[in-house]
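JOB MANIFEST
job_type = single_chain_structure
chain_count = 1
residues = 83
[input]
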Amino acid sequence: MPGVSCATPKGAFYAFPNVKRTGWMAKALANALLDEAGVAIIGGPDFGILGEGYVRLSYANSTENIARALKRMGEFLSAKKAA
């Protein structure tokens, strides 16, 4: 995805990708993805002050649903400038 990087999670059911290079603030991105792409994620600041620039993605779902959500996120980030 444009502007997104992520370390491979080890032993969890979520990932915490870095979205700083997208230009979006984490919570604004989470809200926009829910409203405009139908993808529910959580902004990193909900986990503490050092969470800005990160979002939390759960992968406790089917492979098909995860692939669909990632596709929608990629399309959104390719089409939308940061708010």
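[summary]
The two ends are 18 Å apart (CA to CA).
The beta strands are 14-15, 42-43, 55-58.
exit_status = 0
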